[in-house]
Amino acid sequence: DMRYSDEKVTASRNFANKIWNASRFALMNMEGYDKDAELAPYTLADKWILSRLQDTVKDVTGLLERFELGEAGRAIYDFIWSEVCDWYIEIAKPRLYNKEAAAERATAQHVLATVLVSAMKLLHPYMPFITEEIYCTLNPEEESIMIASWPEWKTEWDFKQDEKDVEMIKEAVRSIRGVRTEMNVPPSKKATVYVVAEDASVRETFEKGKVFFATLASASEVLVQTDKSGIAEDAVSAVIPQAVIYIPFAELVDIEKEIQRLEKEEGRLEKELARVNGMLSNERFISKAPQAKIDEEKGKLEKYTQMMEQVKERLAQLR
Description:
single chain; alpha+beta; 7% strand
């Protein structure tokens, strides 16, 4: 199938371009980088990407040892494209651009270089030429990537809780971007973002990740609080399982359109709840499904129930 082959070639070319652009960005922001420089403590985002690197190293190594080459390649692709390029580079930009804060900038440089070098080693069996070029450019003192040591899993970079925390913030960013896109709000338009959560650990997570959350959510200011105090009734909302995000966009938002959006979300959640309740009330499913699958569906029921309550509360406020 020539069309399928052309699609694969195009996808490979796009991937190579994205890797090359990421490496060029890193090199452009390595001015003054000293591998022995004093580093600041890792940020929440640093811990997340280093921990995700460790997960990827472990997964890819195991898959290659079992000769599951396709799955290994997919894992490398997802890590580099979806996590390094789409998220971490964007998160690191404020520190990389800030030459006044030397230790923080050096830490961002160190983490980005570490992640890219390890990613190139993982990718080398699949794309030998471009990875050789990028590796030697990032490490001019090294002779070749072909004789470099394979990445190894490091206990000190196993930050599982930080991974979960950043995934929650990413979900909030995606929700905000979705709302802004629906309402045709340009990314350049910044506004105050309120994060409302009863759970103290959730509030603490958003406080720790406030700087990069503000960057990715196009926020001029991020305020984390337990209730809606000080938030205008006509504020736009984005709901995630752990919190509700409010953005005071009254002058930019058609309130009727916001109601329609929430009603659409209410309809989607009604379908999800009906599906989950149907499965959990099915005796055949309960008797034959693995316990892990049953627990997964129970978790979804709790998640969708909480989201539905928040959506209904928001609709009641706007109507």
